[in-house]
Amino acid sequence: MVRAFTILLLCQLAGTVVQQALGLPIPGPVMGLVLLLALLVWRGGPGQILHETANGFLKYLGLLFVPAGVGVVTELQELRANAIAIAIAIPVSTILGLAVTGALMQKLAKPNA
Amino acid sequence: MHKLLPLPFFHVWAYLQTQPLLGLTATLCTWELACLIDARAGHRAISNPTVISIVILAAALLITQTPYAAYFNGAQYVHFLLGPATVALAIPMYANFETIKRNFFAIIISLSAGSVAAATSAMLIARALGASHQVIISLGPKSVTTPIAMGIAQNLGGQPPLTAVFVMITGIFGTLICTTIFRLARIKDWRAQGLAAGTAAHGLATSQMLRLNETAGAFGGLAIGLNGIVTSLALPILVRLFGF
Question: The dihedral of CA B187, B192, B198, B199: what is its sign?
Answer without folding.
Answer: negative
